[in-house]
Amino acid sequence: MTTRRTTVSTSRFAIVGLVLLLGLGLAAAGAPAKLKVKHQLGAQVFRQPAIGQAITTFPLNKILEAVGKEGDYWKIAFDLNGVKTTGYVHEFLVEEVGEGDAAGAGPVGLVKTQDQLAAEIELKIEEVRGFVVREQDLPAQVDSLHDLLPKLFAIEDVQKQRQIACDIYHWAGQALSKQGDDAGAIREFKNMFTVDYLYAKRATKYMADPNISQLFDTAEKQYSGTFVGYSVHVDTNPKEAVIKVNGRVWGKSPDVVTSLVPRITLEIEKEGYRPEKAVLSLSEPKTVRSFDLQSVARPIHVGSDPLGANVYLDGRDAGKLTECDLGLVPYGSHKLTVKKPGYGDWEQDLVVEEGPGPLSFTAVLPAKSYFPVFTWAGLDNKGTAVPRGMTLDAEGSFYIVSDGSVKVRKFNRDRGGLPFWGQDNKDLKGLKEPAGLAVGPDGSCYIADKKGGSILKVDKNGKTLRRLGRPGTKDGELTQPAAVAVDQGNNVYVLDTGTSRILKYAPTGAWVKSWGKQGPGPGEFYYPGAVTVNSKDEIVVVDVGRIQKFTPDGALLAAFAKQGPPEAEFKRAQGVSCDAQDNIYVAEPAAHRVLKFQTDGRFVGAFGSFGAEVGQLSSPVAAVVDGNGNIFVLETGNRRIQEFQPPAK
After folding, report:
1. Per DSSP, which regions of 340-381 are E strands?
2. Please, are residues 366 and 581 in contact by the beta-carbon 8 Å criterion?
């Protein structure tokens, strides 16, 4: 048996020519070029730019007309049986030549048998297959496989040539798929069907990897002309989310995504929601995919009273004025601040959590300055000597205690006196030294009798209901009760300056507990002056230069002292009250002024100076606030009440 031999050209001239061909290519995709067949066995021409059934074969040194190039294949025009036609020839089989260059170097090189050549190619394919399976250096394996394709033209057995070509395309496609290049993989697999349809079908019949199997199916449909592509209807809740396909923006939901490859990467993005990512392996022409987006932020709406305030989030100016929307704020802890000239800053620590609708905040800004609008004089009439304390009930009526012959007086909301209120009550007339008073939620008035060592409770008509406490130092007994306050449950809190403590009484009048002692430490009282209760039923006590807040059971919540600028410091306070926002107002008789603090102790401002003119103060002992934010100041020096209002909103 005679062994046929073939020559594989390795001429240095041919190699140089090939390098030049690869490096230069065509000056333009459609520019003509002259090609000369350089392979000893001739150049096979295919209908597609891939190995398959040859249309014809041109002999060695044949000059061809190239009209373009696609990848590794030249597209040539030629006459076939008298008919103008086009085909593709691999660049390995030809070289580009100039006009009139009819001579070629001719094939030279090593001579190998057909079996040796086939074995060499198959051995390399098996080596590369191992690397692909182990996913090692995949780009290099694709290049190695493509480098084997030109060698196939030296194999004369057409069936063998096609089968080896299918194996090359198969593993090149596998390597590309493992790199995420499904489009490239489909091109390689389609080449398999183009080269040898039956062999390709057998090779892919028992494919275990479902993604590779799907890619083969797509390649077969493209080869047969039955492929119409894939479509995915993408919808989201909420809608109008950005859709990205393989890293590129496609549109906004809902939308239909189309693809020529069965595996795509969908990314869904929407402000305020957690981004979603899904790798889809499409098996049906039409697919529906819905995403329920998980929110990671929530809109915040900010209002203020008054309006037109600047809004800051986490210390950064939001660039908006109230009333405004801040947009979506990420979940977590934040600090919201609202500022307006002439008003104290409003701050709120907030935790943004998942929930329906926006979070809304209304910042009630505490006014820094107040303007006198009414002066109510003549408190020295009707037996009133020096006024000592004042309170305001829910109906707008005033109660004033003094050390004159008329110990307690009541005035209606129109500032008119009620001369017959409590006139027949001997208990009221018998008060020894009324020092402070408060009105409870039920309208009852509680009067602290400092020298009498007790608290007198009367109804809104001035009729005695009961007494709380009695003189003494034991539990429930009082020595010098100077101030009283009532919470929303009608529990009573008495400041006993004689023992520097707070005593709590139940609505029934029974003693509940006591706390505090003399001293400057936390929870202690150093010359305490007044007590009040805020809207949260927190007990607020002022002593020398300090404000302390307690729970109804006496646990210390906070202590504020010497916070802010020097004007925020005060010495001995005699009156304290809170408004609806729990701002704290302190009357300082010695400095003839009223100070205002926010509920967390931050200084807002102060007003007042010594004198008898409108707006001036003389020894203020009480400052109470009505529901409109107006402040009523009781002065012992001028024996009058002045009404102050914040600036116009």
Report:
1. 346-352, 359-364, 371-376
2. yes
- Phi first, then psi, for residue 155 (nearest 5°) are -85, 120
**Cβ burial, residue 127 (10 Å; 0-12/13-18/19+):** exposed
Q: Is the peptide bond before 238 cis (omega within 30 degrees of 0)?
A: yes
Edge-to-edge strand ranges of the sheet holding 286-292: 255-259, 230-237, 286-292
For residue 254, whether the previous peptide bond is cis, meaning omega lies within 30 degrees of 0, is yes
CA angle 590, 593, 594 (to 5 degrees): 120
Rounded Cα gap, residues 73 and 49, in angstroms: 6
Tokens read off for 306: 């008054």
Work out the pLDDT band at 213, boundaries 50, 70, 90.
confident
Sheet holding 54-58, edge to edge: 54-58, 43-46, 83-90, 73-80, 63-70, 33-37, 94-97
Report whether 573 contacts 545 (CB < 8 A).
Answer: no
Residues 6+ away with beta carbon under 8 Å from 284: 230
DSSP state of 145: H
In whole angstroms, give the CA distance from residue 315 to residue 337.
8
* Nearest to 216, CA basis, from 196, 237, 190: 190
DSSP annotation of 576 = E
In this predicted structure, the answer to whether residue 152 has a pLDDT above a threshold of 70 is: yes
CA dist 352 and 334 (Å) reads 8
Three-state secondary structure call for residue 488: coil
611-625, pLDDT tens digit by residue?
999 999 999 999 999
Q: CA-CA distance, 443 to 431, in Å (whole number)? A: 20
* Secondary structure E strands in 210-262: 230-237, 242-245, 248-252, 255-259
Strand 109-113 and strand 530-533: the pairing is unpaired
